[in-house]
């Protein structure tokens, strides 16, 4: 059996997790300011989320921007769709737009 490509691994992670963030570090210990800002905002929602530490998965760090069309980290996906990075996450939390999306995604899981 063929080993899945990095792109297939990424697509499976996104499909298998209703809410997933690709970040530097972990939610408990972010390793860059943008990831810390995104997690702080997401923590206000109490939504369950999966994460991938791209610092420990350089093959994903290298390939994900080509898959998502988004050049930087973190990257948040909800129900398979790219939401964006830390600025967009924070803006959507502040406006109240992100909470319903997260609740809907995690309720359906």
UniProtKB/TrEMBL annotation:
Residues 19-83 form the Glutaredoxin domain. Signal peptide: none annotated. It comes from the Bacteria. The keyword Metal-binding applies. Keywords: 2Fe-2S, Iron, Iron-sulfur, Metal-binding, Redox-active center. [2Fe-2S] cluster binds at residue 32. The keyword Magnesium does not apply. One of its GO terms (molecular function) is metal ion binding. Glutathione binds at residues 24, 61, 73, 86-87. InterPro entries: Glutaredoxin, GRX_PICOT-like, Monothiol_GRX, Monothiol_GRX-rel, Thioredoxin-like_sf. CDD domains: GRX_PICOT_like. Belongs to the glutaredoxin family. Monothiol subfamily. This is Glutaredoxin. It comes from Mangrovimicrobium sediminis. The gene is grxD.
